[in-house]
Write a structure and sequence with these properties.
The chain has helices at 2-20, 43-51, 66-71, 86-96, 120-129, 144-147, and strands at residues 40-41, 59-62, 78-79, 105-108, 135-138. By secondary structure, the chain is an alpha/beta fold. The chain has a 5-stranded parallel beta sheet with strand order 1-5-4-2-3.
């Protein structure tokens, strides 16, 4: 029941956020489809990697909207801000500034269907422009509720 409510609220929250954001602050929107398929990681694979105690954990960064992060996010992930806004991209750059370029990073958003996501490609491009080579993008076809929560993968709330 809670998951149904979350799934129903995600598109509404996303629409509200987009409608209330000032236009000039938005970064250039590139489609998620521009990300090479080799850079994608499926939810089941990331969930297994995070559960595997013997495997090093990647840095998992949420590059979407804060309201969605507080409602539900991948445990251990960090909110860095929506990459569709220049301020979010700057927070992303600041977060990774002192990391080795070999750091394994997984980014995700989950605000909406993959083809409509305004955040993921900008974040991916920013990390590559900074020289990071081990960047994976969590492929969320519909939204975090459908592709992560409904599959029983762990979530955290708040933040």
């Amino acid at each position: 029941m809670k998951h149904d409510v979350l799934k129903a609220l995600l598109p509404v929250a996303f629409a509200f956020i987009l409608l209330t954001q000032p236009g000039p602050a938005l970064a250039q929107h590139k489609p998620a489809a521009s990300i090479p398929s080799a850079a994608l990681i499926q939810p089941a694979d990331l969930a297994a990697d995070l559960k595997n105690a013997s495997k090093p954990k990647p840095l998992v960064l949420h590059v979407g909207f804060h309201i969605l992060y507080t409602q539900a996010h991948i445990p251990g992930s960090e909110f860095v801000g929506p990459a569709s806004e220049e301020s979010g991209l700057q927070l992303l750059r600041n977060r990774v500034a002192k990391l080795p370029k070999s750091t394994a990073i997984v980014i995700y958003c989950g605000c909406c269907p993959w083809s409509d996501c305004p955040n993921i490609a900008a974040a991916y491009d920013a990390l590559h422009a900074l020289g990071f080579k081990q960047v994976k993008v969590l492929y969320i076809a519909d939204n975090l509720g459908t592709d992560w929560i409904d599959h029983g993968y762990p979530i955290a709330k708040g933040g």
